[in-house]
Design goal:
By secondary structure, the protein is of the alpha/beta class. 22% of the residues lie in helices and 26% in strands. The chain has three helices and six strands. Strands 1, 2, 3, 4, 5 and 6 form a six-stranded mixed beta sheet that branches. Helix 1 runs parallel beside helix 3. The protein is globular and about 50 Å long.
Length: 167
Amino acid sequence: HVMLSILLLFGFCVSGHAYSTYVATTTQHTALYGSTPDETLRLNYDEYSRFADSAVRRNADILVFSEGGVGWEQAHNRTAMFSFCERYPDVTNGVPHVVPCNSDAFNQTSQAALGSCIAMKHKLTIVVNTCEQIRCADGSFSNPHYPPCPPDGSYLFNTDIVYGDDG
């Protein structure tokens, strides 16, 4: 069962500027499952591309995908989660500007590249919920607000990644 909703959202007035509007769409998508994590991810990102086609036909500016829609919730333990999780670039306020699609710095079957290519192809801002893995065993990542590094050496985060309409 799939649902695509369209919302018209209004911006706000700032120092006399005119109101701005944008059209946002959301999905309620039940993940598709393949026989391997890579196949599961590919099936769902292919589905996401079809949702993006539909959103663009409806003049959407942003498309927000549902939580767990790429299939990572299929993993029932941390070991299985590693197949669905990846490291994303540390981007603060858009710096550095990172476009994973068609970049030599990214495996083009990675979730970062797949999401980026969908946004770029459709000239659509998209928000994808995914799993991020951050290594902590080597001490390069520490935060006093987090529990100690897990025995497997990585934190796993339920993460939303935003891709601009340029990928």
